[in-house]
Amino acid sequence: MAQINSCLKRTFIGFNLFFALVGAIILCLTVFAQIVTSDEDDDIENRTYGLICLYIMGAVTMLLGLLGAYGAYKEHKISLIVFLVCMVIGSLVMIRSGIPTAVLRPQVEGFLEEKFSELLPLNMATISQKHFVNNMQTSLHCCGLFSYTDWNEDIPSSCDCPSDLDEESDTCKQVVGMNRYPFLKQSRSIYSKPCFPILMHYVLLMADISLGVVFTLAALAVLGMILSSIMIHQLRHPNKTPVVYKVPTIFIPGPPKYQELQNDLPPPY
After folding, report:
1. Tens-digit pLDDT profile for residues 187-213
2. Which of 60, 177, 192, 255 can pair with 182 through a Cys bridge, CB separation 3.0 to 4.6 Å?
3. Contacts by 113-119 with C-beta closer than 8 Å and gap 24+?
4. CB 151 within 8 A of CB 122
5. What's the rounded Cα separation, in Å, for the pair 72 and 68?
6. Using CA atoms, how far apart are residues 251 and 172, in angstroms rounded to an integer?
7. 3-state SS of the chain?
8. Cα(213)–Cα(32) distance, integer angstroms
9. Any idea of the CA torsion for 206, 207, 211, 213, to the nearest 10 degrees?
10. Which of 111-125, 140-154, 198-212, 230-244 has the least mean pLDDT?
11. pLDDT class for 241, splitting at 50, 70, 90?
């Protein structure tokens, strides 16, 4: 005989099957990312660490979803208790990692600005630092970290605008004498925007997305805790007879519906 409310059971099973599907998607995307990046030898250690973390996250999410769905479908108390404990731990971990990140988010821009300022002037930076900035300028279509003058008069070719963008004043601008041979006074078309504001836009966007994912998962974990707790309670107290409170009633006799009037004999005339 079913001991859990049928509507609650269906809701909980659907909730956990969604979690299992998300875990399976994470695993598939991780396998795809591993195949795509298998030919890249740069930073192999960090890539392997990231892939392992994604594999663990996907597997744990899928297993927890299947465990919760099985416990609700079979009304298995032990499975639901294990699911509840995992949800408590997961919600605490998410909140513990999300709150410090949200507190430190406003300080990210100042920290990165200080670190990038240490690279100036860029023409005096190391080869690896120049390579990093050149790649960023090529991909983000920008020049310099805070201004094109960060390179002094040694502006690299990664700052040059393509010929089809020369007429777009909002993307490119003309500078005179800013090249390796300034005495020639040749004008160049370079990207008008610096790289640091563009980079900060993407960094803060990723931070906001990460915080949104973390707090959404924490909220879903709390919801899973509530639903599993209700089902465990229903399994521990099946078919509980409702208590009916009786109020004693005191009957007070009322007046009779009618009263017979008795008159004496009429007075004599």
Report:
1. 778 888 899 999 899 888 888 888 888
2. 177
3. 113/196, 116/145, 116/146, 116/196, 117/145, 117/146, 119/145
4. yes
5. 6
6. 97
7. CCCCCHHHHHHHHHHHHHHHHHHHHHHHHHHHHHHHCCCCCCCHHHHHHHHHHHHHHHHHHHHHHHHHHHHHHHCCHHHHHHHHHHHHHHHHHHHHHHHHHHHHHHHHHHHHHHHHHCCCCHHHCCHHHHHHHHHHHHHHCCCCCCCHHHHCCCCCHHHECCHHHCCCCCCEEEEECCCCCHHHCCEEEEECCCHHHHHHHHHHHHHHHHHHHHHHHHHHHHHHHHHHHHHHHHHHCCCCCCCCCCCCCCCCCCCCCCCCCCCCCCCCC
8. 21
9. 10
10. 230-244
11. very low
Which residue type sits at 176?
V
| Separation between Cα atoms, residue 17 and residue 14, nearest integer Å | 5
Tokens of 177: 């004498």
187 has which bridge partners? 176
Instruction: Please report, for residues 70, 93, 211, 212, the alpha-carbon distance to residue 67 in angstroms, rounded to integers and kept in the order given.
Output: 5, 20, 27, 25
Q: How far are the Cα atoms of 52, 114, 145, 165 from residue 177, in angstroms, in the given order?
A: 51, 29, 20, 20
CB count in 10 Å sphere of residue 72: 25
Q: Is the pTM of this model over 0.85?
A: no
**pLDDT of res. 148:** 86
